[in-house]
Amino acid sequence: MREITSISHLFRSFSIFYLALDFHIYGIFGNNDVERHLEMGKKFLAAGQLVDALTHFNAAIDGDPSNYLVYFRRATVYLALGKSKSALPDLNKVLELDPKFQAARLQRGNVLLKQGKLSEAEEDYLAVLEVDPSNAEAQKQLQLLEPQRENIRLAKEYYEQHDFQAAIDAVSLAIDVSPWDADLRELRAESYIAQGNYFKASGDLRTTTKLVSDNTEGYYKLSNLHYDMGEAEEALLQIRECLKLDPDHKQCFPFYKKVKKLTKQLRDVQDYQSNGAYEDCVSKSKAILKTEDRVFSYIHRAKGHACHCNMKAKHIEEAFKWCKEILEIDENNIEARCDLAENYINNEQYEEAVQEYQKATNIDKNNQRAQEGQQRAQKLLKNSQKRDYYKILGVKRNANKRAINKAYRKLALQWHPDKFDGEEKKKAEKKFMDIAAAKEVLSDPEMRQRYDNGEDPLDPEQQQQGGRGNPFFHGFNPFGSDGFNFKFHFN
After folding, report:
1. Which CATH architecture is the domain 391-452 placed in?
2. Which of 109, 110, 237, 485 is the most exposed place for a label (fewest CB within 10 A)?
3. What pTM value is reported for the model?
């Protein structure tokens, strides 16, 4: 904002100055084409059409390269366009043609000051004051130089002492005076990086790529910064700018290949997930982690895809692994929390699913996926608590004791917990206990009769009332006293 205000003030000052020059210019030119281009340039400049004004001033200079006032006008346009590097040669040419033109010398001093060339700016201000000791602008600008030198010294000193906030404060004051000094911008960028404020650092580095010609180093640093911010697409754009300047740059070229590879992988994994190609999504998420194992943003995204796509592909153990890993580094990740809950449903662990969805709604009570998932998990939990013992054993309601024991023997072997690991083991334990409960009820004539009459003998409330209802109270513990080693006994 300060730079825009400064340019506006500069533009107004030049407009007033040019009114005094018009008569002088017309007296110099004898070429009608030059006068026409000059007049058109003035009109476009007054209308703020700077590019058109520049075209006509270029033509006027081609027609009369010895007229210092046209160079001065063109320098004004360059400055208004933010092209100080182009304006400076024109101001130099003006003073070469007319060393007594103090307005050009004062303006050159201002440009040099903004570029951070303090000693050269000081020479111009002193030269103006030698001719015109009462020149207020030259006096004012000259007074800025010593505080500016002190702020720059302090900024460097604070940076070396790792007092980065103090360095930022000092160098920011210096940048207010010399906004076109690339070294000051880079010093502030490095200070911001040291603080972890990559966003502000990127703004300063981006400015240096405009202030310094062929700034391959600036583009390389800017690309790395965007990469570390998790902005792979922007990093790719900036590293390509470096290669436009030097296709074989020893740092930019290998980094370009890495960023290009990662960017494609990120696009592919998103497409696979969106299109339901979950096996490909899982494979690509692992490939991302091989390409980049340092930057949090890419690790976070890769594990998020691995969590979701393994869950969708019904890879239960893998889904648990990845979902829990991402929640370890980002416990408020609602999508991963919901994916974990959904995976619990896939594994028929409905209580755990309800708990995970509750955690998700605690993070964001308005999250629709969490709300709908919690309602579904609660229904599934309620339905799962209504046990159908005949269905559990897979026998008909008129099955005899022999058929019940046979079914029990087969299912008990199938769902023995020792055959499973991790979360699958928890599912097997529940299945195993349900199988044991079904055998306990259906092999006991009295309990079976009560069950057939619509009463569950193993209902928790009835357990509290009389101690019946738990198959373990009847001397049967499917897990034994030492883990899951036990012998089957069938009546």
Report:
1. Orthogonal Bundle (1.10)
2. 485
3. 0.73
